[in-house]
Write a structure and sequence with these properties.
By secondary structure, this protein is an alpha/beta fold. It has a single domain (about 15-290), classed as TIM Barrel (Alpha-Beta Barrel), CATH 3.20.20.70. Helices cover about 30% and strands about 25% of the residues. The protein has nine helices and 13 strands. The chain has helices at about 5-10, 70-75, 80-95, 115-125, 145-155, 170-175, 185-200, 220-225, 250-265, and strands at about 15-20, 30-35, 40-45, 50-55, 60, 75-80, 100-105, 140-145, 160-165, 205-210, 235-240, 270, 295. The protein has an eleven-stranded mixed β-sheet. A two-stranded antiparallel ribbon has the order 5-6. A hairpin with a 2-residue loop joins strand 2 (about 30-35) and strand 3 (about 40-45).
Length: about 300
């Protein structure tokens, strides 16, 4: 294939960076991108080793309207194309070459499983040795629970980690937080995640947005233990970030009591750090807006390398 014929079928566009903001607290960087008429955000996450992970948006906005999430208040505009997701990661790699990008989490704006085919394609490109060169196990896809897509994902046998953002083990409580819970019941989601873990020979991965007075009780821990009895469970707990003030963070006493309740029932958990709050980059706060922190200047532009054509 000649260079001309390859360029006829493959685009060379890049996302336009409208803004870069670095947290003055923890070094997280939020990118505000434009592609066509839409804007969306990406977060560069500093890891300890040192290396980067990238929180990737899969949609411009989101249609699910989770009560505690800023993106849900923006509303949905469109699905992102695979190249737009991959380019979020490549932009971070180009602009911050001092650390390798070793992880990607589809946990930015949007519900990845409402853009299933494009997200899977983007993850495959990020994993490929001629693409992003990120280990498949270091790519995480997060869903609030689109049951048919969880079942499809399991059947297809993808290597990427799947995490269910459950946030409450009770249907009536969860519906008030995550409206799509009216369609997909907790018991059905739990069963699907158990099947997924069994097929992979892995533990069940759940995300839990911790909110004071809502989902921090002993009853939640007890119901989780019942739903996942016999399975190895890992709960990834993160404090809520709600600039409206509707949902409050649990204090140390309340949070510790919840962790103790989990531990007593043999439920594994980690407390995830929610970074970049001063630049609205923390989990749940992505809403396609600039502000806070320190504005970063654009690095010198890197030339587009062009395709490598063999033969």
């Amino acid at each position: 294939m000649t260079t001309r014929s390859l360029l006829a079928v493959a685009g060379t566009a890049r996302l336009k960076v409208l803004d870069r903001r670095k947290s003055g607290v923890d070094g997280f960087v939020k990118y505000l991108f434009r592609s066509g008429d839409e804007t969306f955000e990406t977060v560069r996450i500093p890891l300890q080793m040192p290396r980067w992970s990238v929180c990737v948006s899969s949609q411009a906005g989101c249609a699910l309207g989770c009560a505690f999430c800023e993106t849900g208040r923006v509303g949905f505009t469109r699905n992102l194309e695979p190249w737009e997701m991959v380019e979020q990661v490549l932009t971070v790699r180009r602009e911050a070459p001092e650390r390798p990008v070793t992880g990607a989490v589809f946990q930015g704006q949007g519900e990845p499983f409402q853009n299933y085919d494009n997200v899977i394609r983007a993850a495959q490109v990020l994993q490929h040795p001629c693409g992003g060169r990120i280990r498949g196990q270091n790519i995480t896809i997060s869903t609030v629970g689109i049951l048919p897509m969880i079942e499809r994902y399991t059947a297809e046998g993808h290597v990427f980690r799947l995490i269910l953002s459950l946030t409450s083990a009770f249907d009536d409580r969860r519906v008030g937080l995550i409206p799509v819970g009216r369609r997909y019941m907790v018991a059905d989601l739990a069963a699907a995640m158990r099947r997924h873990a069994e097929k992979r020979g892995d533990r069940v991965h759940l995300a839990w947005v911790l909110m004071s007075g809502i989902n921090t009780g002993q009853d939640e821990a007890e119901e989780l233990a019942r739903l996942f009895r016999g399975a190895v469970l890992r709960l990834s707990v993160i404090d809520v970030n709600d600039p409206t003030g509707t949902f409050k963070r649990a204090d140390d006493t309340e949070r510790s009591a919840f962790f103790t309740a989990l531990a007593r029932r043999g439920i594994g958990f980690i407390r995830r750090y929610s970074g970049g709050a001063d630049i609205h980059a923390a989990c749940g706060m992505l809403a396609s807006r600039a502000g806070g922190g320190d504005a970063l200047n654009a690095p010198p532009p890197a030339p587009f390398p062009g395709p490598r054509v063999l033969g």
